[in-house]
Amino acid sequence: MKTGIRKLWLRVLIYGGLVCCMVDAFLIEPHWINITRLSFGDHPSVRVVHISDLHHKGNRSYLMRIVATINQLAPDVVCFTGDLVEDVQYLDEALDALGHINVPLYGVPGNHEYWSGASFDRIGDCFRKTGGEWLVDRSAISLKGRLLLAGRSGKDINIRHAASELAMPGQRIEWDLVPAAISAPSVFHSTIDNSIAEKGNSSTIAPRAKRILLAHYPLEVKNIKNEKYDLILSGHAHGGQVRLPFIGSLIVPFGVDGYQMGVYATPAGRLHVSSGLGTFFLPLRFFCRPEITLIEI
User: Fold this and answer.
1) In the CATH scheme, what is the code of domain 32-296?
2) Which of 3, 29, 167, 284 has CA atoms 20 to 30 A from the CA of 278?
3) Torsions phi, psi of 49, nearest 5?
4) What residues pair up with 50 in beta bridges, in sequence order?
C-alpha cells in the first residue's frame, strides 16, 4: 500500500513538474521581461539601453510594453542590435511602436532583416525621426559629441552562412564590409541630437567621448582589428532560449562562437550579448527571460 502511494506521489511530482515547466516555457517566460542594470567605470557619463532580437510577430501590446519600459528607464540613447521582424507584414507596426521611444534610437540589421527583405530605407527613416540612425557599416556622433557609435552590417557572415542576397530580390548588395573604425573622424555621418544637426567632423567630438560598436553577431568581435571600444553590443544568440541549470544553452545559432549571453572581456573592449526580447522557431523560453539592459558607461 505504501509503495503504491509513493509511486503515485512520484508520478504527480514528475508529471506536475513537466506541466509547470511547459507553462513557464510557453506562457510565462516569453513575455516576462528582465531589466538588467550594468555600470562600468568610476564615473559613468552615458546611459544606454540595449535591446535586441524583437522578432515582432504581431503582439503589439508586448511591443508597446517594451517601449514604455525603455522610456521609464530614461536612457540617453537606445541601441538595437538586429532582428526586428521575421515577416515584412509586421514591419510597419514594429516601426510605429519604436517611433514612440523618447530618445535617439540607433541600430544595425540582423539576419532576419536580410532574410525578410525588410526595407532598410523605412527602418532608417524611423530611427532618424527619433534623432538616431540606422548604422549599416556607418558611424554617427551623438549627445553633442559625447558619444560615438559605429555599426557593422554583418553582411560577410550572412553570405557565408545564409545566402541572404536571395532574400532581397531586385536589390544589389555590396558584400565588401566597410570598416567601422571610429578612430577616423572621416567615417562619421551626420546625426540629429536634440533636433540640432551636427556635422560629422572631429571638432564636434568631446575629448573623452565614449565609443560604442553595434554588431548583431557576437562573432564580429573577433573581426575587430586595431580598434578599441568602451562597449560592444550584440544579440542574435537569444541566450539559446532554452537553458538548463549548470549546463547552459542547449543550442545556439551560427555567428555566436561561445558568446551566448552576458558580459565578456575581449581585446577590442567589453562585449555585452543580449538574450533578446523575442523568440525564433518555437515561442518558448526556459531559464532565459527576455531582456532589456540599462548600461552606464
Assistant:
1) 3.60.21.10
2) 167
3) -100, 130
4) 79, 293
The region of weakest confidence among 47-51, 194-198, 258-262, 266-270 is: 194-198
Domain ranges for the chain: 32-296
Determine the 3-state secondary structure of 274 from DSSP.
coil
Instruction: Say if residue 29's pLDDT is above 80.
Output: yes
Rounded (to 5) percent helix, strand, coil in the chain: 35, 25, 40
In 3D space, the residue among 107, 105, 41, 108 whose CA is nearest the CA of residue 75 turns out to be: 105
Q: Which of 273, 276, 253, 249 is nearest to 262 (CA)?
A: 273
Could you read off the pLDDT of 80-112 as tens digits, one per residue? 999 999 999 999 999 999 999 999 999 999 999
Residue 152, by phi and psi: left (phi above 0), alpha (psi -120 to 50) or beta? beta
- Cα 290 to Cα 48: distance, rounded to the nearest angstrom: 17
